[in-house]
Automatic annotation (TrEMBL):
Domain tRNA(Ile)-lysidine/2-thiocytidine synthase N-terminal: 34-213
Biological classification of the source: Bacteria, Pseudomonadati, Thermodesulfobacteriota, Desulfovibrionia, Desulfovibrionales
Protein name: PP-loop domain protein
InterPro entries: Rossmann-like_a/b/a_fold, TilS/TtcA_N, tRNA_thiolation_TtcA_Ctu1
Chain residues that bind ATP: 37-39, 43, 69, 140, 145
A Gene Ontology molecular function term of the record: ATP binding
Amino acid sequence: MKRWGKLNYAQKTCVARAGMLMQQTQMLSPGARIGVAVSGGVDSFVMIQTLLIRKSIVPFPIELMVFHINPGFDSTNHVPVADWCQDNGLAAHFEVTNFGPRAFSEENREKSACFFCSMHRRRRLFELCRNYNVTHLALGHTKDDLVTTFFMNMMQGGKVDGLHSRDEYFGGELMLIRPMLLIEKDMIRRAAKAWRLPIVTNPCPASENSRRSQIGGWLSELWSHSPEIKRNVHNAIGKWQLDLDKSLS
Ligand SMILES: Nc1ncnc2c1ncn2[C@@H]1O[C@H](COP(=O)(O)OP(=O)(O)OP(=O)(O)O)[C@@H](O)[C@H]1O
């Protein structure tokens, strides 16, 4: 890990926990070509930095390529991410779309803006995976996302379901992976700061206003009464998800 200099506790934790999850769920195989979905936000930025380091550790060859879909609110928003990829020798595909403005237009009367935008983004990411012959698509969901999704599924859908660390698509042609799934957002923020990553802010008008952020707010309010409750809930749901994913891999 010499090339990366001395890592602090948060940086080491991100690299180690992502590696452990990858091993435990057999996320990667030799020759994996990973498309890394990077929004420019803190989670996916730390994910690409973590995967770059893991690439130099895993005992078999893997390839990384960054995919960024600019939603079209600000067509130059992704420039710091593009510069960072270039400095780090990463192949990357940047694309400016109109998914964001369309999500708030008459075209989208039925669904929430978030649903519309993320559905189109996901579809485009899948197309890019096919175009670039990618075997894995990595998303930057964290343990906090897992816990929020778990409660959302229960409260809105009446079912017990989380977020898988690996999911097969198109008859196994593509594996969607979430290497950061068992890492707390606080740790990821601390690692991002230590790596001095040029995080970009999301210019979407709905970014702080979605159903997900509302449930996230309720949970934060609950955690504010006791860090122990947060730790216990996060550990319980994280362990439940890991056991489930191990049994499926
Ligand atoms: N515009 C985008 N281009 C490419 N990938 C994206 C984009 N937006 C989101 N993603 C991918 O989907 C994941 C989950 O998206 P979400 O909108 O929930 O982001 P988030 O939790 O705010 O994470 P981040 O801090 O990475 O933006 C991201 O971590 C990233 O991997």
